[in-house]
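Researcher: Next entry in the queue.
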Amino acid sequence: MNEYRINKAGLSDILSAWSAFLKRRIHLVACGGTAMTLLNIKASTKDIDFIVPNLEEYKYLTAKLTELGYIQTTQYGWSKDEGFIFDLYPGNAVYITELINSPLDAGGNIPYKEFDRIYVGILNFYDILITKLFRASSVDIDDCLGLFRHAGNKIDLIVFKERFCKTASRDIGEEKVLKNLGYFIQTLKKEKLI
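Model: Structure for this entry, 194 residues:
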């Protein structure tokens, strides 16, 4: 287990250094714990999760990271001596959860920060919830409750459930993830968030 944690300022410093090294523009969309940190729901995260929706940009970025001394340590993870793992998901997926739309489509992400050659957005609230609830560890459930508390009325429960079910219909574990949704809705009621 990774013992290091990174906050918004530390992440910004690393991305600024990457940006100075790149020769072309890259779009990154924060997901997972990174999204929660950038939204100020969590103070820090153990690993850094980004979707790189454009496959050409993904190939370019990973080639440049190799030049910067990063090594691929897992299927999606890149690491260097700073101790953090950058999970970079190519295309429209977070790990194995395929999103309905590209995070670069209108409404797919919340603009966060622009560096010279890196755009950083945060995955929209619905897709953050979906990707966390597909896995549904206790940390994921806590993160989703935190997002509901943070977002207030910006999350339409009907839209969320419809989007979740549509995403689930394309997953091989549809029955399991639908149970996760049911459990989460019960938890929201118990916590008086709906």
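Model: The two ends are 35 Å apart (CA to CA).
Researcher: Noted, moving on.
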